[in-house]
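Let's sit down with a protein and look at its sequence and fold side by side. We need material for that, and I hope you will provide a protein of your own picking. Once you have written the record down, we can walk along the chain together.

***
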Amino acid sequence: MIKLKLFVNLFFAVLFLTLLSCEAEEKYTTYLFTYFTGNSGDEEAIRYALSSDGYNYYALNGNQPIIDSKVISSTGGVRDPHILRGADGKTFYMVVTDMVSANGWSSNRAMVLMKSKDLINWTSSVINIPKTYPKEFGDVVRVWAPQTIYDDKTNQYMIYWSMLGEKGPDIIYYAYANKDFTGLATVPKQLFFSPTNSACIDGDIIYKDGKYNLFFKNESHGGGIRKAVSDKLTEGYVQQDGFYDQTDEAVEGSGIFKLINSEDYILMYDMYMSGTYQFTKSSDLEHFKVVDDAISMNFHPRHGTVIRITESEKNVLLNKWGTLDKSVFLNFGNKAVRENNIDINDESETIYIPVSLGTDISNLDLNIETIPWVNILTTGVQDFSNGAVNYTIETVGKQKTYKVAVHEDNNPVLSGFYADPEIIYSQKDKKYYIYPTSDGFNGWSGTYFKTFSSPDLVNWTDEGIILDLKKDVSWADRNAWAPCAIEKKVDGKYKYYYYFTAAQKIGVAVADSPTGPFVDSGQPIIGKKPEGINRGQEIDPDIFTDPVSGKSYLYWGNGYMGVVELNNDMVSVKPNSFKLLNPGVTFREGTEVFYRNGTYYFLWSENDTRSPNYRVRYATANSPLGPLNIPENNLILEKRPEKGIYGTGHNSVINVPDTDQWYVIYHRFNRPKGITMGRAAGFNREVCIDKIEFNDDGSIKPVEPTLSGVT
């Protein structure tokens, strides 16, 4: 009887502990994403974001750091944060790379170990590997992407990371942390070495079905996310066949986590060249399916990790970092709103909302969506015709009111990111066409061209891709930049000649319609530097047919302004016709030539397109071949900080047929975000149109860049 009683008590004790374990598993309601954002300024710092479903993430603290990198690191910057909940369920561990990338990719020697009880207050220690282990690792030149896992066999926390010595390649090592998580208790040992002698970085271990799965980046031999498997945590990893990322783009920083109340896992990784993150899902850690269509973020992360947290832990974070600022606004559901150009000013508590021309702003529902933990108290149709309307938002007992003003703006004229606009008027179909660079790609890495049509310079239609380097051009497949085009009548039929930059060479394609399809000539028309030129790039073509002589000229250049005469076929250069023009020391690129009242005008851009001071100057000539006469005050288009307009340049000019009305088409930084983006503003540009006017003597009046544009 006593034995039976003991058995029953033991049974219920085990059942109770099992239920407690289930409750512990079920208590997690939210995902915490730790990440950094880039390679400059305070981008190399730890940030937080939250998600209720593991797919849609929203930044805390306005996407600003939650801890000062300068306080915790030896270099002033940290990257690759990995966060772990401890075995006790109450303590959190974070390890980060101690590094400022501006110092070079082989400049860091340390990592930072961090510990917290509340996810807010962290203690930290810097571990410099060569200084700590001069005999074993004195030649180490980089210490990258540390992570932590609990070893339940030894009841210790194991830290693993990649290191590069003088001989290379990068190898993944491990060591156990001391009891206080302030240093290493053991000398680092090799954890995994590529069987093909490839560099291995960004390791991430997850335990499933009795196996330790080590995902890592294979830095060479094709590159991508690979996996090695072992039944022991610290040894015996065998590399599996194939790659586990689901993209052909460059990737790094894989992180894997299990979804709450699910048997599915998310493998995410940083597609660092395109500035995006990819999420994939699997139930067996072998077969992964892309789930990008379900993913959203109101920030752009770099190499981060995700853990599950409780509702109370989430509320602690919201009380600390659930700010009421512009980061809480997600979408303005009304299609008339031009979301790329909404200007939310937290300091003045104002919101400037541009809408499409013709929108009834006296009867407008903005349909504003905010992040999940913020409520908007002002909803429904509002009248903006008499000025700003107050909108109140609240979270965690806090409230804030913004004055929301709505304006009908037509700059930018194209929706999305485009640059280097060329414009023509087609006599064939009586429409205007803009031929821009497709922008918004890191490092100007776009590979295709589009065109847009308009009957009136106001309303523009996207006509789609007209030339794709990867499909349509045999001699280049990268850097699709700065095109130009011209309409010519050949044997009674209209032909369209399209000159474009690809891989820092200039090509030409031909079509029977201004919307294509354009057929490439098969080789660059300008493929090398002209004789005597030892600077700049062969980019930024401009095509011009002289109305006096009927001859056609192709201009181009970065760092120099060159011109050649074209043969009648428009796809080949007249031999020995190259001439170097002299626009002076302000010339950078983006030549534009046009003719008015007997004068030839030459416009160009000064400074770097990534500079807020990118701007346009001009000269005149009596011939399409110069010499150039440079006016004393020849600056005609530049920034307007008071309007939030910066980086105005690389223009073309169009004359409205049968009038003396002229317009300049140019790009600028995205407004309002561009000026905050650093050099990345130079490949997140947008196209605008404004009037260009002339004095009685033919000189060009300074152009006033506007928000309203052509109306």
